[in-house]
């Protein structure tokens, strides 16, 4: 069992608990070792001495335990969450996927349209605002147990748990509307955004990376057809090799 101190209140409780244990131990040893009359004479000064020594030491140790907890929390945040947008990292996404039960899920690959041009025209600060807002829209319009992750650049992956493919497409189209309806404000100027979405099924026990690749192919089709739309992976249409310039905006 690992003892954790997570707040100043718990630091004070820890210090009080340790001081009480030391005090009781001091009283017990005094009674067992010293003659009764001497134990009675020294009980008060001895108890005060035990508390005066143990309390500040216990408080100091509690403070260090709190600092360790806060550092560990920050480290976990950095490892598991994207620093810019706050959504999951790629590594955390795959870690959470392994926790899925016997349920069919849907993977959505989402990509901001013409993001490179947006960045070049309005600057990296505006680009960062766009990424944060896009990530917030994805997270706010998903359930608590769904997974939203940034895989790199302007590409995000969403996993909708216990969801059918048709409902996944509806969700992706809803996300696209939310993006269109909410402009990014940079220096009080409203800048519109759109995004494209690819949707694929992740069957129970299926390969998440394969589902992501399928959704990415559907995303390419959405980009090819004009962007600002969502498509479901179609093996007849999307199974072949992608053109060499798929990454081009």
What does this structure look like?
With 249 residues, the protein is an alpha+beta fold. It has helices at 8-33, 36-80, 90-97, 115-122, 124-140, 165-181, 208-224, 235-238, and strands at 105-112, 147-152, 155-160, 184-186, 189-191, 195-202, 230-232. The chain folds into 2 domains: 8-78; 90-238, Reverse transcriptase/Diguanylate cyclase domain (Alpha-Beta Plaits, 2-Layer Sandwich). Helices cover 57% and strands 15% of the residues. The strands form 2 sheets. Strands 2-3-1-6-7 form a 5-stranded mixed sheet, sandwiched between helices. Helix 1 runs antiparallel to helix 2 and helix 4 (115-122) crosses helix 5 (124-140). The two termini are 53 Å apart.
